[in-house]
Amino acid sequence: MTADGWRAGHVVAFARRWESDLVIAIVPRLAERLCARAARWPVGPDVWKDTRLRVPETWAGRWFRNALTGERLQPIVATGAGWLAIASALATYPVALLVAESSSRHE
To answer: What is the three-state SS of 41-65?
Structure first.
């Protein structure tokens, strides 16, 4: 998966798909440099700013639940591509394991 934006070089992500199941793992890279002057985790918009992960456009509109925090998020379509904001995926915890929800699980 490809990252774009101000902190693109500081994120590693990959997706795995099996039949209709889909997961995305996201972790910071070189985290010490992200938080060099602050004793905190690399989370939220102050750290990640406009950094985003390119996902297949067909994934936009699907809901994902972070298996570690329970937070839900949805990729968006912008400029002809699907994008997932890293600041949202890593809003409260420094790593994410996003599991696509099936249509029967949508609220």
So the answer is: CCCCHHHHCCCEEEECHHHCCCCEE
